[in-house]
Amino acid sequence: MELSGSVWMRRVGMLSARRSLLHLAATQFHSSSTNFLASPPLSFPFLTKFLGPSSRCISFSTHSSAAPLPSTLHQDDLFTSPVGDDEKKAESPKKGSKVILKGLTYPEVEKWVQSHGYRPGQALMLWKRLYGNNVWASCYEELEGLNKDFKKMLGEHADFKALSLKDIHTASDGTRKILFTLEDGLIIETVVIPCERGRTTVCVSSQVGCAMNCQFCYTGRMGLQRNLSTAEIVEQAVLARRLLSSEVGSITNVVFMGMGEPLHNFENVLKASEIMVDEQGLHFSPRKVTVSTSGLVPQLKRFLRESNCALAVSLNATTDEVRNWIMPINRKYKLGLLLETLREELCARQNYKVLFEYVMLAGVNDSTEDAKRLIDLVQGIPCKINLISFNPHCGSRFKPTKEDKMIQFRNVLAEAGCIVFLRWSRGDDQMAACGQLGKPGEIHAPLLRVPAQFQAALGASI
Ligand code: SAH
Ligand code: SF4
């Protein structure tokens, strides 16, 4: 169904009122670029009534809630809204009077433990029980070997749990989709992808839904409901290990390729990745923690400067015309700017390659001309390219490029010296593959107008 931009914004505005109203409160209408933001100011009592009691559940979200988050990005909203420009520092995560342990980095845990009169050595023992030694403690009763008083204090003042397991679906290729319920009842999905070469990857979500409205992505159909807190992100990796290590072997890689745009939730994602690579804890190698972005340029720049984890960029098109349509974020950050930023930021870095993801859409971005343009676009950028087969989902207007055409496309790139891989779908019979996560409600983000020259290519797939 195609909705006009204004109708969509009104309807999504009601559905995701919790986030959007906090956004309004925080930004004081400093952007009037969307119809929703252009409505008259709302009084605080109205906000309180709308937010309801669960708004205090995760007080960490004072940081993330205040971040300016439009419900979705769409045709009429030409990205004058401040997408993810949240420069605030993360606050100490709390639930009621309890501190949420998995939202803290090790130095923060140490400080907090000391503030309760215990030694740093005890903080380390706690940290190891949360994240190391195959314990993955999810309540204070599981903290074997800790001093009794310390355990009692933790029982009184610390919260161990950010997620509840709802379900696990296993696809025919062994991929697992784990569904978690959040404190406020929302549901997120985490995917565990075993691989024959002994490398098992957990694909974590960073938001409930996504504001970016990429036209080929199922998660994008949901719009954005809210950011995940640091603890909610970290715990996906912890619980994936706890629940599935015995079945799938050790989980060695993390990709932020689940629900959401990670750099739209910058602070919480950065902090979560810091916790994941801590050598005394989960100890993922920074090279094996990959944050994937649709191309939020300022945040991408910050990420490259502040994190030692890996970066993936979803390119998916070789012209602004196509990218403006299939990835509306391109209207704010054009291909040229995105690639020039990567060129500048990476030229001085040793042994670092950005990963470009390129989802192949039949008749849209898979011609030989596209392959040639792609070679030119990535010139001078140390990179690898993954060509990803499109995973269909209900309501999608695209169809996947045929296998032989993907191979041909790959060959053109390889002959020009690019490092390029083909990535076939994993877990798609359980809707666990890239771009298939989430559950759009009855209201979907708007489908954008198809440029005239692609109508035939899509027509056949409707
Ligand atoms: N928001 C981030 C990360 C989550 S999406 C991003 O866009 O990079 C992870 C990857 O899935 C992206 O490369 C995206 O282009 C790809 N993707 C989205 N929908 C897809 C689909 N239906 N089939 C295949 N890949 C898809
Ligand atoms: Fe969001 Fe990534 Fe999906 Fe685009 S592809 S809608 S950025 S999750």
Structure description:
GO terms for molecular function: 4 iron, 4 sulfur cluster binding; metal ion binding; RNA methyltransferase activity. Pfam families: Radical_SAM. Its cofactor is [4Fe-4S] cluster. Residues 196-429 form the Radical SAM core domain. Its main location: cytoplasm. By secondary structure, the chain is an alpha/beta fold. Among the domains are: 12-82, no CATH class; 88-159, Orthogonal Bundle (DNA polymerase, domain 1). 34% of the residues lie in helices and 16% in strands. The protein contains 16 helices and 15 strands. The protein has helices spanning 5-15, 17-27, 44-51, 61-66, 106-115, 120-131, 148-157, 218-221, 230-248, 266-276, 297-306, 320-326, 335-346, 368-377, 403-415, 455-459; strands at residues 94-95, 98-100, 158-159, 163-170, 176-182, 187-193, 200-203, 207-209, 224-227, 251-256, 289-293, 310-314, 354-360, 383-389, 420-423. The protein has a 10-stranded mixed beta sheet, covered by helices on one side. A hairpin with a 4-residue loop joins β5 (176-182) and β6. The longest helix is centred in the middle third of the chain and has 19 residues, at 230-248. The model is unreliable at 1-70 and 74-90 (pLDDT under 50). The chain binds S-adenosyl-L-homocysteine (SAH) and iron/sulfur cluster. The site of S-adenosyl-L-homocysteine has 16 residues, from β11 and β13.
Q: In which range does the helix fraction lie?
A: 25-40%
Mean pLDDT: 81
Taken from the alpha-carbon principal axes, the silhouette is globular
Q: Which stretches are low in confidence, meaning pLDDT under 50 for 5 or more residues running?
A: 1-70, 74-90
Listed once per kind, the bound small molecules are: S-adenosyl-L-homocysteine, iron/sulfur cluster
- CATH fold label of one domain: DNA polymerase, domain 1
Rg, Å, rounded: 22 Å
What is the SS-derived class? Answer: alpha/beta
Major sheet: arrangement of strands: 4-5-6-7-10-11-12-13-14-15
CATH class type of one domain? Mainly Alpha
Task: Give the termini separation.
Answer: 12 Å
CATH architecture of one domain: Orthogonal Bundle
Largest sheet: 10 strands, mixed
- Beta fraction: 15-25%
SS summary, helix count: 16
Subcellular location: Cytoplasm
InterPro entries: Aldolase_TIM, Methyltransferase_A, RNA_MTrfase_RlmN, rRNA_lsu_MTrfase_RlmN/Cfr, rSAM, rSAM_sf
GO molecular function: 4 iron, 4 sulfur cluster binding; metal ion binding; RNA methyltransferase activity
Keywords: 4Fe-4S, Cytoplasm, Iron, Iron-sulfur, Metal-binding, Methyltransferase, rRNA processing, S-adenosyl-L-methionine, Transferase
